[in-house]
Structure formats: structure tokens, C-alpha cells
Amino acid sequence: MAGWQSRDGHLAAPLPEGDFRFIALDVETSCSDAASICQIGLACVRGDGTIETYATYVDPQMRFSSFNTQLHGIAAHHVAGAPRFAEAIARLSPLLERHHLIQHSSFDRRAVLAGCAQFGLPPVGWRWGDSVKIARRAWPEFIGKGGHGLAHLKRQLGLQFDHHDAGEDARAAAIVVLQAEARMQMPFEQILLQPGRRAPQPIYPLSDLIE
Q1: What is the rounded CA–CA span in Å between residue 117 and residue 186?
Q2: What is the per-residue pLDDT across 193-206, written as a single tens digit (0 to 9) for each?
Q3: How far is CA 200 from CA 76, 120, 129, 186, in A?
Q4: I want to staple 39 with a disulfide (CB 3.0 to 4.6 A). Which of 4, 99, 157, 166 is the partner?
């Protein structure tokens, strides 16, 4: 993660290279249309648990709503000169198609597929897992008590990240998976196959559960 910068500093960032255990992916959109991806973030997790984070702006070729810009801070002038969706996918696909991807909820996959449909590309056949499902297996006590969104997990697990930056949110999802693996004592692929049940004793202080 050395040299990682969110927002403007990441436009020229090199794409991570090599093999990874999994890659967390997050997108931001410019408006309510799921295809309006304006930022893609990746958190690439190596076998030793280190994370290489990458993000790029994307020109969505769509309008920017004031609501979305207020949420993530990205406006039309930020994406000037950024790759369009087809360019971004062409660059990322060789890396992503050979790794298991993690999204936090199903939105990111839906947005990528919507972008493919919008811009006349074949749907990507990437492998997806959901860190919300992983978190529910690892921390079932959060059900009905704040849930398993990144904002709540940030408070309860002590995560440090800039919410609604795609690179930062991807990194947070990756850390959630790593913490869940440590708590459940099994790899994420096995956690995804587990039925809903009580997890082992927390690895963080019980006082952290108090709002």
C-alpha cells in the first residue's frame, strides 16, 4: 500500500501485479443509474495478508447527481480525461477474471453488469463473493443491532478508512474478510458455505459493541 493516495492522486497509480488470494472491488456511481460508474477501487490481498490498493476514476458518460456527488465527493470535473467504462474494464479484466472477487453487498456486481449492458460489452464472467455474507457468519450478533454495512463495521471493528472512496471501501471490505477468517479460523471460501450460526467468542473487546 506504499504510496497509495485516494482521490486525485490515484489516477496514475500502477495496476497491482502478480497473484492474490482474493481481490475486493468497490464502485461509486455518478447518479441513480447503476451503470453510471465513476470510480472503481480494488484491494488485492496477497497470501501473507498484505493489501495492495488501486483505484481509478471512470468517465461514466452520464450526469452527476448532487446527491451522489455529496456522498462521495466526485463531480464531472474529477473524471475529465479519465478512461471510459469500456477502457477501464479492458484494463482490469486480465487481473480480475483470474481471481475470486469480493464485493460488500451485491451492488458492485450489478453495477459492472449494468455498465456492460449500457455500453454494449459482453457481461463479465468474474467470480464473486459477498463480504456482507461473510460478516454475517462471523458477527451474527450485529443482525438487528446496526447490521453489517461498512459504516457499522467501521465502528465495531475499529476499521480506519475514508468511506465512499472506492479504493478505501474496497480495502475495508478486504480487511473485514481477513478479520472474519481470523475469527472463524477458516478461509473465506469456507465461510461463504457456512449456514447462519453463532460465531466463536469475539476477538475484540466486548466494550466495542457499545454504541
Answers
A1: 36
A2: 988 654 444 443 33
A3: 46, 47, 22, 12
A4: 166
Strands 37-45 and 22-29: antiparallel
Here the cell at position 82 is 479519465
Count of C-beta atoms within a 10 Å radius of residue 14: 8
Q: What's this model's pTM, rounded to 2 decimal places?
A: 0.84
**Euclidean distance between CA atoms 79 and 194, whole angstroms:** 41
Using the structure block, give the residue that is written with the C-alpha cell 477502457: 87
DSSP label of 59:
B
pLDDT digit string, tens, across residues 154-196: 777 777 666 668 988 999 999 999 999 999 999 999 999 988 6
Length of the chain: 211
Cell of 198: 453463532
The C-alpha R_g of the chain, in whole angstroms, comes to: 17
SS3 state at 39? strand
